[in-house]
Amino acid sequence: MYINVLKSKIHRVRVTQADLNYIGSITIDEALMEAANLIEGEKVQIVNINNGERFETYVIKGDRASGMICLNGPAARKVAINDIIIIIGYAMMEFEEAKIFKPSLVFPNEQTNLLS
Q1: Catalytic-labelled residue, pool 58, 66, 90, 104
Q2: Which of 8, 22, 25, 104 is catalytic?
């Protein structure tokens, strides 16, 4: 049996940009992606602390150490600049593997979106 479990989480980052005219996705600082074990093109869930929105999109790599968190395309309508969001990635794995799996949890500075 396979189950879907938490693999990656970037907890409480600030939206720095929203670009409605981009093709779609979320652009994330490359350092945050690496720390959270996320890869470009990976599907993620976005949870907006400010307005309660929950939606899915995919990851695009942003400039390293830029603090960039940019919602693109239609997802830009689900956030406002300076909203605080949580970015969550999941993985399918065998039930027994899931029992011992440890997710990558990242808690960046909420003001700068940079790692300490």
Answers
A1: 58
A2: 25
Q: Is 58 considered catalytic here?
A: yes
Structure token pair of residue 101: 């799996």
Distance of CA 113 to the CA centre of its chain: 12
To the question of pTM greater than 0.90 for the whole model, the response is yes
In three-state secondary structure terms, 62 is strand
* Host H or E run for residue 97: helix 95-100
68: its two tokens: 């960039």
Q: Any catalytic annotation for residue 90? A: no
Give me 53's structure tokens: 């929105």
Domain 2-104 in CATH 2.40.40.20: yes
Amino acid at 2: Y
Interval 42-84: pLDDT, tens: 999 999 999 999 999 999 999 999 999 999 999 999 999 999 9
Q: Where are the domains of the chain?
A: 2-104
